[in-house]
Amino acid sequence: MEPVAHGGDLGAVRSRYPGAPEPWIDLSTGINPVPYPVAPLPVEVWSCLPTRRQEQALLEAAAARYGVRDLATIVASPGTQALIQLLPRLVPRSRVAIFGPTYEEHEACWTRQGHEVSVVASIDRAAGADVVIVVNPNNPTGLLLPPATLRRTDGLLVVDEAFVDLLPPDASLAPDLPENTIVLRSFGKVYGLAGVRLGFAIAERRIVDRIRDELGPWAVSGPALEIGRRALGDAAWLQAAAARLAADRQRLDELLIAAGGEILGGTPLFSLARHRDAAGVADRLGRHGIHVRRFTRAPQWLRFGLPGDATAFSRLADALA
Asked: Which of 12, 79, 207, 260 is the S-S candidate for 203 at Cβ 3.0 to 4.6 Å?
């Protein structure tokens, strides 16, 4: 398969628009533009190998945040992408159904390992598959399937909950995990710290043990363990971020609608819009130093992350006008 296109790489887009104003505004990812404030870290976090005690502290904070009851059922990894690439290697060649269109790395990684992969437009069409993969809420549409619907799935169920953090707790399968299910949780998106590279898998102990064995020792860096522990334990910051993001998402949607876009969906961290001249809109934004996510398979779609401050909102409004 061709490499999957992602947002976030400004190097290529800068070369296409050399006269665009700086600094660029990157709206091509669904990452909180106002990150969790990272206070100075102890020097030993940088200079020493990560310890089991540090990892345990992170897992305790993550379990409390995600509603996980048993620490033996959660494992930390260097980002969710690492887990997406690892899981296909743990499963014998299988029939895999992916509810989509969705985050294309799932399809790419399972196909690369020789699995028989199909993307299905309805969860009912996944019936009979050995492995069912659902991104919930979906990226980029924001569609959220009820947990009751997911529980009716046969075979191994993989649920990527990268964007569930700001939704009601009952939207997640993690607190009441069905058998033969793997839930993936991303740290960097809602906390705005994607560069930390931290994610989690939640599953039965036998599955978690296999994942931990494959990841090997010191899979998560000392700084990531400490930053994750602090952020996941800070409920007040998360509550304030949720309120700000909700207001910003509403403001963003109003701008997109005024510019002729149709809102198709989204999450608290991004909005998906359809525009009959999506290519032209993306080009105009690029010339104004604003990067948004386009989709080869859906050329009328544009995904917008949230501007981070009043200046960014003003530049976006001017460019759209």
From this structure: 207
Closest CA to 170 of 74, 248, 83, 67: 67
103-119 core/surface letters (b: 16 or more CB in 10 A; e: else): bbebbbbbeebebebeb
Around Cβ 11, how many Cβ atoms within 10 Å? 6
Cα first-last separation, the chain: 38
Give the pLDDT confidence score for residue 12 in this predicted structure: 86
Coil vs helix vs strand at 12: helix
The Cα–Cα gap between 174 and 68 comes to: 6
**Residue 293: beta bridge partners?**
303
Superfamily of domain 10-35+236-320: Aspartate Aminotransferase, domain 1 (3.90.1150.10)
φ/ψ of residue 29, rounded to 5? -120, 160
Question: Rounded to 5 degrees, what angle do the CA atoms 164, 266, 20 make?
Answer: 115
In the predicted model, what is the mean pLDDT of the chain? 96
* pLDDT 10s digits, 19-61: 999 999 999 999 999 999 999 999 999 999 999 999 999 999 9
277 three-state secondary structure = coil
Could you state, in order of their start, the residue ranges of all structural domains in the chain?
A: 10-35+236-320, 43-233
The answer to whether the CB of 126 falls within 8 A of the CB of 153 is yes
Among 219, 222, 115, residue whose Cα is nearest residue 158: 115
CATH architecture of the domain with range 43-233: 3-Layer(aba) Sandwich (3.40)
131-152 pLDDT, tens digit per residue, is 999 999 999 999 999 999 999 9
pTM above 0.90, yes or no: yes
Six-digit token pair at 238?
């998360």
| pLDDT (0 to 100) of residue 1 | 59
Reduced to 3 states (helix: H, G, I; strand: E, B; else coil), residue 218 is coil
- Report the residue count for the chain: 321
Strands 156-160, 131-135: pairing is: parallel
Instruction: Kindly tell me if the per-residue pLDDT of 163 is higher than 90.
Output: yes
